[in-house]
Amino acid sequence: MITDAHVPLTQHQPRSKTYEQMLERVRYEGTYPTRERAEEVVHEVLAGLGRQLTGDERVDLARCLPLEAARVLTAQVPDTRPLTGKDFIHDLATRSGASLATTRWDTGAVLATVAAHAGTGLTSRILHQLPTGWALLFGQAELTPTA
C-alpha cells in the first residue's frame, strides 16, 4: 500500500531502501558501471512499460514496486495501440537514441527485476495482457499454444 501518495517526489527526498535495492539489482543484472546509469535505464524501461500496461495488472504491478518506480510506471498514459515485444524495443531505442542491442539488454535487466518484484502470478497476468514477444523481455520462455 502506498502511504505517502500525497507527497510529491522531488530530487531532495531520500530514496527508499527498496528502491535502492531495486537499482542495485538492475545495476548487477545489466552490469552497469554506476547506480545513476541503472536508474536512467529503470526510468526509460518503466516509462515504456507504463505506456503499454493497463487495468488491474498496471495497478497491481505499481503496488509491488518501490514507490519511486511505481510513480514512473503510473505517470505514463497508456498507448491506444499495444506494441509487440519487438516493437517495444524499437520504440524505446528510438526514444533513447540507443542501439537495438543496448535497448534489448537494458530492457531485460529491468524487466527481470520487475518480474522478481511482481512474482510469477502477476508476471503471468501481465504477459497474457501484452502482445507476443514480451515473455523473453521478462526473462521467460515464450510459450505458444499448439494447434
UniProtKB/TrEMBL annotation:
InterPro entries: DUF2267, DUF2267_sf
Gene3D superfamilies the record matches: Uncharacterized conserved protein DUF2267
Name the UniProt record assigns to this protein: DUF2267 domain-containing protein
Protein's organism: Streptomyces durocortorensis
